[in-house]
């Protein structure tokens, strides 16, 4: 992961400056390919993949990615240090740039597996897992976590968690600035109901200035990103990046010192069609499985609603992607949207 320079000639040394969050059922390799078309420098994350799935399942299905996706991090779900070490080694061998441990997911399935957010109660176990992974890989090992669990809202709880895990050699923490309520809320409700407390994440950075601290949770605009980058080292964007992916097209210029984007919506769509054709040829992937990730591409543009309807119309599944694109790009009045 290369450092860059921003428009003010200030060195940008953190690859975690801007990233797209791991999102189950969303950030698969097709979604990540789209995001990489839009931003060359943004750090991308896989969906959470459990250690069990890698040790006992179809490894290529879980770990295959497009070389264009770098920089790319593999997020693991698990709690047994030995299993985490084996899975992390697999990730490095497959070519990932980072291994991230999920200590933030609140779902019941994850809780039954004794990992995710409930690991915040077991900082020593997380530290053991981090150390086990660091012993077998040369790439970064990072942790994504919440600021607390259930009704534990004291700052000491998250401070001590970070301190314990940092002592095991973890230097990068991505902090979702909400508590995870393990009882009484669904995963969806856990993304909205527990209040955001950005001040807690800023305090972590003040208390651990030598660590890289990135913030996640509810961030939807450049103004908020800029505000947070004055407090912490990086910003991770979740659902807004998925529903409004064109936002990413500005990030290289705004946050990594790149040139103004020359991308067009039509050009990105054309590149995605070429990717769909490649996927069909090489892996037998139907374009319909890929198109779902780009339905927000024309968010806010004239004709966007009809464009989405065309790309999500199951009656067109028998057509090649290029023909669907031709139908989608022409509005009923004959005009071609941007």
From TrEMBL:
The keyword Flavoprotein applies. Transmembrane segments: none annotated. Gene3D superfamilies: 1.20.120.1460, Aldolase class I. Residues 20-317 form the DUS-like FMN-binding domain. The active site is at 105 (proton donor). GO terms for molecular function: tRNA-dihydrouridine20 synthase activity. SUPFAM superfamilies: FMN-linked oxidoreductases (SSF51395). It holds the Pfam family Dus. Its cofactor is FMN. Its EC number is 1.3.1.91. FMN binds at residues 22-24, 75, 144, 176, 216-218, 238-239. It is an enzyme of class 1 (oxidoreductase). Keywords: Flavoprotein, FMN, NADP, Oxidoreductase, RNA-binding, tRNA processing, tRNA-binding. It comes from the Bacteria. Catalyzes the synthesis of 5,6-dihydrouridine (D), a modified base found in the D-loop of most tRNAs, via the reduction of the C5-C6 double bond in target uridines. Specifically modifies U20 and U20a in tRNAs. Belongs to the Dus family. DusA subfamily. This is tRNA-dihydrouridine(20/20a) synthase. It comes from Comamonas avium. The lineage of its organism: Bacteria, Pseudomonadati, Pseudomonadota, Betaproteobacteria, Burkholderiales. The gene is dusA.
């Amino acid at each position: 992961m290369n450092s860059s320079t921003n428009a003010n000639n200030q060195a940008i040394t953190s690859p975690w400056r801007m990233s797209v969050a791991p999102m189950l059922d969303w950030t698969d390799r097709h979604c990540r390919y789209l995001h990489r078309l839009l931003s060359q420098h943004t750090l991308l994350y896989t969906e959470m993949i459990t250690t069990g799935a890698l040790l006992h399942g179809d490894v290529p299905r879980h770990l295959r990615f497009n070389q264009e996706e770098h920089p790319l991090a593999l997020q693991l779900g698990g709690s047994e240090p030995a299993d985490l070490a084996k899975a992390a080694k697999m990730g490095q061998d497959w070519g990932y740039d980072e291994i991230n441990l999920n200590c933030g997911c609140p779902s019941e399935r994850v809780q039954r597996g004794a990992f995710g957010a409930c690991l915040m109660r077991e900082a020593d176990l997380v530290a053991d897992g981090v150390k086990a992974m660091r012993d077998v890989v040369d790439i970064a090992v990072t942790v994504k976590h919440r600021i607390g669990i259930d009704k534990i809202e004291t700052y000491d709880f998250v401070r001590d968690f970070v301190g314990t895990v940092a002592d095991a050699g973890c230097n990068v923490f991505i902090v979702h600035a909400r508590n995870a309520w393990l009882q009484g809320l669904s995963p969806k409700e856990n993304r909205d109901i527990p209040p955001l407390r950005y001040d807690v994440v800023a305090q972590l950075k003040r208390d651990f200035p030598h660590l890289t601290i990135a913030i996640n949770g509810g961030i939807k605009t450049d103004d908020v990103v800029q505000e947070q980058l004055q407090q912490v080292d990086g910003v991770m964007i979740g659902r807004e990046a998925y529903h409004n992916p064109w936002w990413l097209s500005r990030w290289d210029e705004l946050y990594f010192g790149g040139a103004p984007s020359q991308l067009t919506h039509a050009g990105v769509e054309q590149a995605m069609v070429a990717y769909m054709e490649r996927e069909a040829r090489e892996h037998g992937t139907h374009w319909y499985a890929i198109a779902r990730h780009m339905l927000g591409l024309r968010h806010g543009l004239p004709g966007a609603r009809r464009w989405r309807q065309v790309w999500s119309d199951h009656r067109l599944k028998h057509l090649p992607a290029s023909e669907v694109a031709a139908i989608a790009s022409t509005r009923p009045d004959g005009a071609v949207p941007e």
